[in-house]
Amino acid sequence: MTTVRPAPEETDGYAALMRCAKLLGQASERQAAADAGLTAIQLEILYALIQSKGGLRMYDLAARLNHSRNGMTYQIGQLEKAGLVKRGHAEGNQRAILARITDKGREVCQEAVRSHVAFIHSVFTEPVGDDMKMLTAALNRVVAELERTR
Fold first, then answer.
1. Mean of the pLDDT values across residues 68-82?
2. Most exposed of 9, 56, 102, 104 (fewest Cβ within 10 Å)?
3. Most confident of 53-57, 101-105, 117-121, 128-132
4. 79, 78, 44: which is closest to 64 by C-alpha?
5. Residues with Cβ < 8 Å from 78, sequence gap 6 or more?
6. Higher pLDDT, 147 or 107
7. 28-33: long-range contacts at Cβ-Cβ below 8 A with a sequence spacing of 24 or more?
């Protein structure tokens, strides 16, 4: 029986991507906490709610952010305690819980996003430069394949 081995560029690329994802997640957490006192997932939740019109069902929010439903419930609870989000029933469906961003949440998110854009620029745009479109296209193909086989 022959052993199948990936090409060195495949293992090197995979290892670099995994290191990058881990370090990026850690840096993003530190930046979000320093700027807004939020976790990275909380900032993502607020941003998703700003983009929605009238809020999002908890199930849809968890799916959009690739987060567990239980974890999403916890995060929304924390954001609600801070006055950044409100929960209520979806119109026409009393079983569905809708999360909506508050005015305070919108202000906090908009300020944090301004700072996060500067963070992204320093981490990606400066070091990657003209290769950013190519990197984005390649990563989107990987994401599409992973989602297809999920």
1. 95
2. 9
3. 101-105
4. 44
5. 42
6. 107
7. 28/116, 28/119, 31/115, 31/116, 31/119, 32/112, 32/116
